[in-house]
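Dear Dr. H.,

I hope your travels went smoothly. While you were away I took the liberty of generating a structure for the chain from your last submission, since the lab meeting agenda had it listed for discussion. I wanted you to have the full record in hand beforehand rather than looking at slides cold. The sequence, exactly as received, is reproduced here:
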Amino acid sequence: MSDISLKDIETLLSSGKLTDADLRVLEAQLNKLEKLKEKELCSTRFIKFVEKVWPTFISGAHHKRMANAFERVARGECKRLIINMPPRHTKSEFASYLLPAWFLGQFPGKKVIQTSHTAELAVGFGRKVRNLVDSDVYHEIFPELHLQADSKAAGRWNTSKGGDYFAIGVGGTVTGKGADILIIDDPHSEQEAAMAASNPEVYDKVYEWYTSGPRQRLQPGGSIVVVMTRWSQRDLTGQVLRASAARSGEEWEVIEFPAILPSGNPLWPQFWSLEELEALRTELPNSKWQAQYQQNPVGNESAIVKRDWWKWWEKETPPQCEYILQTWDTAFEKTNRADYSAGTTWGIFSLDEDKQNKNIILLNTYKKRVEYPDLKKDVLAEYREFEPDGVLIEKKASGAPLIYDLRAMGIPVQDYTPGKGQDKIARLNAVSDIIASGKVWVPQTRWAEELVDEIAEFPSGQHDDLVDATTLALMRFRQGGFLRLPSDEPEEIQYFRRRNERFYTV
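The corresponding predicted structure, in token form, is as follows:
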């Protein structure tokens, strides 16, 4: 009996005229057809491939969703994919080990660049991928794919069909390499996160490397897959998405997996029980839990200044103020990479008949990327709008010429230069108790919410311009004795000028 189809088998089975020899051939044919079906499923269905080459794999619902996304990438339906997920949920095994092997099996002539946060880790995964591609179980699925005989280094090797695999750590050089698929797995490390606590710009180095290196090696029509744990609003996921939105650029599909789902159930109950996750949650700082395990960096409880410390002014008009101050934190350039120029306008007022019960209210904010001539016009317009008693400008960037020009126009400008040891974090910490006291009010407006959000995200957020302008104002109010807290030393009562009926006490 020669090779037969399933239809032929059905016909034979229904005839009832099979000999023992026919049955043996039929059994062999059935086994062959089953293997062909398995081979086809494993070659086109990622989760089936995983189950075949990793028999002890414990599958969860999130793995199936990841697998479906990888399949869309392979079919060319998804060109830009970000998956954010917690540690110890098979992130790297899927992204750095199994995905490149499966992709090369389908497309043996294409090029893969795979990255991790260190070269050692990247090369280690490269070795695992190479060994898998060279294994018997792999050849059952992709029998035609083999390693090129003279190219078997762990971090860079070629296939017999002209395909190319290259593993690299963040910061490494990719000159001369191309990629049909760029796989970025956990580009940030624990060490970076520790450094970012005092210097959030640490995360910028990864984004700079990504844009100047691997991103430029992508072949026409190529795909990018980022699989990582969140660390900060400023991490690679955050910066890639912000850049894309700001420039109306590449459209990314984003999948986020929190360790504990909104339903209260664990993401991977087959491996992580809810009790284990809750125990881990109690052991970790909230900021780390929210970012790494819930994919929600910069939770309210992790901020220097909590969102619920602010008082919200519910009336349509602001109170009449006794003293108004404007503060400015300026930038040099009008570019997407430059900081914003930011300004804030604040007023001192009495909340009740007790004139000693002083409070602060935010009257306006300014945040734009503008060239210096437009900045000067805008600052002048803000001054004319509110007629503040004082204008305080940090003497840096375009602040220095702005101070000179405004003084020449008769505007009472004071310059400010932070002293040694007075970094942004220290300055915000110095005024955080003022906000915590419940004496700082903000109106229920979009621009006020933006200020509150930026301060709540500091120091991990993308921008801190309004942070600087705010701390500048609150520091001046405190140092000038305009606002006193019970913990402050008593000082002489201040008396203020009263000018603008709209904002000032009459």
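Two observations you may find useful: Residues 6-43 form one domain. The first strand starts at residue 80 and ends at 84.

With kind regards,
E. W.
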